[in-house]
Amino acid sequence: MGAATMGTRAAPNVILHVGAPGPAVASEAAALLNESLGSGFTQPSALAQLTADGGGVLIRARGRDGGLLGAATAHVLDRASHAVLQDRLRITGVDAGLDGRRVGELKSIVVAPAARGTGIGSIMLAASLDFLKARGCHDAVSASWVSADPQHSSLGMLERAGFAQVATIPAFWADDQQAAGYLCPLCGAGCVCAAVMLVLPLEGSARRG
Fold it and tell me: pTM above 0.70?
């Protein structure tokens, strides 16, 4: 995928942009992510940077009528991010078996309100996992927002795709929020939302114990 964008028809009524975004794609994807995940959650420049070296991907879903349906991001964890993930899991007493393995992260999957319940999230999830597999990842991880509203949670979709829960981490986004200065849609400036961490082995179908 690299720096070139790729348009792929994922379903009869869905067109995916998979790859590095141009300015227009980055702007509309950032707007949708910020609307759902919190004002200031990301910037178009951050989405461009995510994909700059081929280690990350932006996925935008549009309908055949041109309407924006969803946006998702994923990337391969670098050494520092891998170590942070391991530390956060170990604090909860969990060893997810990720030592020495190449790990990809599903950073965000957001479906436009009018398109929820139509399978758009699963289409973007599949494209994200294809990207991580192509980059040689052994496992995919994702943090699912613990929310009373199922429409704000990716948990069911991830579990249907084969992800397994490994830990629940309180105030998961607090440090990131403080560093980036974005507002949680529930908590505002002081986010205390928990996240369920999930892991999916990408090698074969067997799960490790």
Answer: yes
